[in-house]
Amino acid sequence: MPTTTAVALQFLLVSDDHSTLKIVQSALDSLGSNMTCSTSGGAAVVYLSSHRVDGIILDLPLSSALDVIATVRRTGANRRAFVFVCSDPGSESGEALKGGANVILQKPLDPAAVAASVKTFHGIMASERRRYFRHHVTIPVSFVADAVTQRAMMENLSEGGMAVTMRNPLARSSSAEFSFELPFGPRVAGQAQVMWINDAGLMGLEFRLLHGSSREHLMNWLKNKALQR
Q1: Tens digit of pLDDT for each residue in 4-13?
Q2: What's the CA gap between 5 and 114, in Å, rounded?
Q3: Stretch 50-58: mean pLDDT, rounded?
Q4: Across the chain, what does the average pLDDT equal?
Q5: Distances (CA, A) of 61 to 10, 91, 153, 213, 220
Q6: For the segment 131-143, what is each residue's pLDDT rounded down to a tens digit?
Q7: Which domains does the chain have, with CATH numbers?
Q8: Helix, strand or coil for residue 199?
Q9: How far apart are CA 185 and CA 79, in angstroms?
């Protein structure tokens, strides 16, 4: 019977091995977590460019796994995701850890062992997920980048950032000053960096700096929203 958890974690498994898929699926089901699967590192990078996950499980050759980790850690909404790397006996698992992996899952995989490993770090992943939980809200946002002011419409908001739609999206990885008024609340202002842009024109930004009392205002608003859920 699945374990009930306060937070349903989201995982991406990267593997083209059906037995690995079944084992990992069984392990995550037992924890009440959700899983999406990609069959290659390239497909995983594309998926992660526009989807946020809590954990990434890589069942790939070491060089391919390192490429995915490097891309994920460099930028994007998933750079703090927990990365598990499946490793064959006798392989250089230390290289994966040096490359940015958090945990090594030794093969042959076993559902109970995989579940135990994930459960060990569940609290860390759940805490990070709460930090980035998105509250749907529709409010105007003002951006200033390179002395040019643009208006956007916010789609969702979290402690760590926001997603907006803008007629002329900013360049990925660029930074901009922003300000907006919380619904029935005070103004929040600061600096944010563009982390991703999807094909639908939605732009994800991470807060880099919050001015004045903006962090206090934002945290109080989010706390009240959480109590209303």
Answers
A1: 335 689 999 9
A2: 17
A3: 91
A4: 89
A5: 23, 10, 42, 48, 46
A6: 667 788 999 999 9
A7: 10-131 (3.40.50.2300), 135-228 (2.40.10.220)
A8: coil
A9: 31
**Three-class secondary structure of residue 77 per DSSP:** coil
How far is it, in rounded angstroms, from Cα 157 to Cα 154? 8
Question: 156, 152, 146, 217: which is closest to 185 by C-alpha?
Answer: 217
**24-38, 39-53, 90-104 — most confident range:** 24-38
Q: Strand, helix or coil at 140?
A: strand
Q: Of 141, 140, 143, 207, whose CA–CA distance to 170 is shortest? A: 143
Backbone φ/ψ region at 212: left (φ over 0), alpha (ψ -120 to 50), beta: left
Give the Cα separation of 122 and 103 in Å (integer).
13
Q: Is the pTM value of this prediction over 0.85? A: no
pLDDT at 120 over 90: yes
Residue with tokens 């460099």: 74
Residue-level pLDDT at 89: 84
Q: 180: closest CA among 196, 156, 146?
A: 156
Residue 139, token pair as written in the block: 């409010």
- Per DSSP, which regions of the chain are E strands? 10-14, 34-38, 55-58, 82-87, 103-106, 135-136, 140-145, 148-157, 161-166, 175-181, 187-197, 202-210
